[in-house]
Structure formats: C-alpha cells, structure tokens
Design brief:
By secondary structure, the chain is an alpha+beta fold. The chain has helices at about 70-90, 105-120, 170-175, 180-185, 225, 230-240, 245-260, and strands at about 35-40, 50-55, 60-65, 130, 130-135, 140-145, 150-155, 160, 195-200, 205-210, 220, 265-275, 285. Strands 2, 3, 4, 5, 6, 9, 10 and 13 form an 8-stranded antiparallel sheet that branches. Strands 1-12-11-7-8 form a 5-stranded antiparallel sheet.
C-alpha cells in the first residue's frame, strides 16, 4: 500500500454556501483552529465491540474490524493505534503542512501493522478493518483518508455532506448502474468490502481529500453500524440539534439502536473551533481502542 502520486482534490463542501477561504491575520499565518471532540462506541449483539475510535484536538479515527473470534477487535485497535501514532509523529515533524498531512503514510503503516499482527498469530489470520481518519492541520484544512465503508461527513451551515465513498460490492454495483440505491440498501451483500486494511488483498492507496475548515463545521466519522441503519436526514437533524459534540454522539448511537442495528456502533463527532474557544482534553479512545 503506497501513497498516491496525484494531488488531493478539494471537495465541493469547501465551496458550500457560507464557506470562505481561510482568513489570514495581519502577520500572515492562517487562523489556528482546534477540534472539540467526543466519541461513543457500543458493542452489538455479539457482545464484543469490534469497532475502535479515537477523538482528539487535531485528529479523528474510526475503524470497524472484521475477523473471527477477537480478530476484528484486534485489527481495529491496531489500525487506530498505528494511525494515531503516525499522526502524532507527523505533527511533531511539521508534516501536517504536507498536502496529505501525513495521512497516506499513516494508513499504509496501519495496513502493514494489521498484516504483521495477523501473521504472528494463527488465530488472527485473515483479520481486516476499515479505517477512516481526519486531521485538522495547522494551516486550516481538514484532510481525510479512507479505506472501507466507515464514513466521514461534514455539517456546514445546516447542510450535511458525505466526504467518503464506500468501498463495498453494492456501492460498486450502484456506481455501474447494476443496482439501484434502494436495492443496495436491502441487499444481503451490502457489507461485503472490496477494500480494507489487512485481509487477503492489497487495499491500494487510501482515498484522500481535503476541505478548508470553517469555524462551526461539525465533523462526523462513524462505522456502518450507524450509517447503515440511520438515514442521512436523521444524521443531519441530530448533528444540527445538539449543542455539544458529546450529546450529538450519544444521540446518534441511540438512534442506531432505535433503528434496530445489529452491528457495533461508533460515532465520533467534533466541532471546528478557534483555538482558545474550547479546552479539549486529550484523545478519547472508545471501543476496542479503549480495551486493556
């Protein structure tokens, strides 16, 4: 898994109504933003949470593991740990100023780490995980890297925009015109992944995109235990209604339960705020990432 050689796209959300280029102070640098984050994860009927999440003042990560026994939980935890560690190193080295903010390498390293862990323990053979990560850079961008069917969204000026594309069989069939959206939602194959970290196939480079951050943006990263059962309009209404990210994340998980989800559910919610307006704590770990 290698970093792509093509430039990052600026997603259309950067041109959403009310959006504007990053403002500069008189001395030149862009205004400094931070994330005010929260995260909630809840195990599904099998009792073991195979999702993992991390929410911090500069980075968010969600992983949804796949594998027999404890393999899915291990894969998700390894991916979140590795991506988090690589992001911290990128910030320390000033690499968040790079076009991909160091995320391409972080996700590739997570893929390698999951594969190493699987090869070291026969009980973990074949384990894999999705991985969706977002970084708020010091120059005012939100950079997203994505593999699998976890999702990233941004709520801006009341409009919810999905930033990622599912790497699933049914999403590919919808894109080719062989399935309708309604058929895909009801398909028993809707959770079949075409790309994941670990597993038997090389996932290729992570999808990468960037938007210009605006104060008041609200980011949502979630596993398909939420997005697979709760419609986008409900996501939008909950995200817009709750003042605090923690309340929004909790209500989203409750909405998934009310909708009858049979999967683990993880919601990571974070607000883009000017530095000094919030006092976010250190990273919050949930799901398998919080396991001892």
């Amino acid at each position: 898994m290698t970093a792509p050689a093509v430039p990052l796209p600026w997603f259309p959300a950067a041109e959403a109504p009310g959006a504007a280029p990053g403002r500069r102070r008189a001395d030149g640098p862009l205004d400094r933003f931070v994330l005010d984050p929260a995260a909630v994860s809840l195990a599904g009927p099998r009792g073991q949470d195979q999702d993992a999440g991390c929410a911090g003042p500069a980075a968010l990560v969600v992983a949804d593991g796949v594998g027999g026994g404890s393999g899915g939980a291990v894969a998700a935890r390894v991916a979140v740990d590795e991506v988090g560690r690589r992001i911290a190193a990128a910030f320390a080295a000033g690499d968040d100023a790079r076009e991909d903010a160091g995320l391409a390498g972080a996700v590739a390293a997570a893929d390698a780490a999951v594969r190493r862990a699987a090869s070291a323990d026969p009980a973990l053979a074949g384990m894999a995980t999705t991985c969706t990560a977002a970084v708020l850079t010091r120059d005012g961008r939100v950079v997203v890297a994505h593999v699998g069917d976890s999702r990233a969204h941004v709520l801006r000026s009341g409009v919810l925009t999905r930033l990622t594309t599912d790497h699933t069989l049914v999403a590919a069939l919808v894109a080719s015109g062989d399935l309708t959206t309604a058929q895909a939602a009801a398909s028993p194959m809707r959770s079949v992944l075409l790309r994941a970290l670990g597993g038997s196939a090389d996932p290729g480079p992570a999808d990468l995109l960037a938007i210009r951050a605006e104060p008041g943006d609200r980011l949502l990263l979630c596993s398909d235990g939420l997005s697979g059962v709760v419609p986008d309009d409900t996501l939008r209404r909950v995200l817009a209604a709750e003042r605090r990210p923690a309340a929004a994340a909790a209500r989203l998980v409750m909405a998934a339960l009310a909708a009858g989800t049979r999967d683990d559910v993880t919601a990571v919610v974070a607000d883009v705020t000017p530095a000094g307006w919030a006092d976010p704590a250190g990273p919050v770990l949930v799901g398998a990432a919080a396991a001892d």
